[in-house]
Amino acid sequence: MLISEFARKAGLPVDTIRFYIAKGLLKPDRALKGGSNPYQLFKPEDVTAARMIKLQQKLGYTLGEILALNEEYRAGEHSSERTIEVIQLQIERLQHRKEAMDAALAFLLGKLDWIRSGKPGPAPRLEDYER
Amino acid sequence: MLISEFARKAGLPVDTIRFYIAKGLLKPDRALKGGSNPYQLFKPEDVTAARMIKLQQKLGYTLGEILALNEEYRAGEHSSERTIEVIQLQIERLQHRKEAMDAALAFLLGKLDWIRSGKPGPAPRLEDYER
DNA sequence: TATAAGCGTGGAGTGCGCTCCATGGTCAAT
DNA sequence: ATTGACCATGGAGCGCACTCCACGCTTATA
């Protein structure tokens, strides 16, 4: 498929797609050579790849990190060992982030309780929830 | 305290502190007037405020959002009603983010299982984990 | 009093992640 | 053959969150 259809399916602006291609995050096929079709051609897997990038961004990765991660992933594509390591690394970082959020959540909920109960004793201290 | 001591206690570079002041996120006292001390003076609560900013950033808020949130918070400082609303809003957004992370985590763990078990059946699909 | 450390201001620069635009090539339909 | 939609490239610009620098003033210490 051509870039505009791909962009629609991926839910991203065309410019962003091109930006990702320039960064090496997406690698559409090229059909130039002879002189007929100088357009970039996208496969259905590329849509999945684009979705994956968006997901990874939501998880707090920069495009640079995503590129590195995905390249490592590709490098070990035929080694389950390596793939498992990469996935485990992602899971680990994700869990760290979740823990930070849990701490923040606990703090906010603690504060809510404190206010609701008429503020007895000292206010919950942020420091007590940080690790 | 003066800015450098404050920066040390807050765990942020002096330049960043000044940047936050310029943005209205921090409001140190001013002791100029007569002509003696033209320096910004920070109170211990300001350290807490700075930590709070860092926390909010970790939770994915932009400085603009943090400013708005904190101002609303201050505006309703003497209304428990309002304070509770603001905190609940933060909790809600936080839980949304957590859910997104849980979905990602489930996807990654699913993939791990699939690889470990010798890849029977189709690979876990990202779409099945998105909401 | 000289000097050095610290402070404030203004402005430029940086890296990231886009976003927009001008130019020009390609292609399908008329 | 012309039109119009789509494509590619290169480069400029933008908002965010800093970061760095030059300048000049203030204050503590020698």
From TrEMBL, chains A, B:
Domain annotation HTH merR-type: ranges: 1-72
Entry keyword annotation includes Transcription: yes
Organism domain of life: Bacteria
Pfam families assigned to the protein according to its UniProt record, in alphabetical order: MerR_1
Stored InterPro entries: DNA-bd_dom_put_sf, MerR-type_HTH_dom, MerR_fam
Keyword vocabulary terms for this entry: DNA-binding, Repressor, Transcription, Transcription regulation
UniProt GO MF annotations: DNA binding; DNA-binding transcription factor activity
PANTHER family per the UniProt record, alphabetical: MERR-FAMILY TRANSCRIPTIONAL REGULATOR, REDOX-CYCLING DRUG-SENSING TRANSCRIPTIONAL ACTIVATOR SOXR
Protein name according to UniProt: MerR family transcriptional regulator
Source organism of the structure: Frigidibacter albus
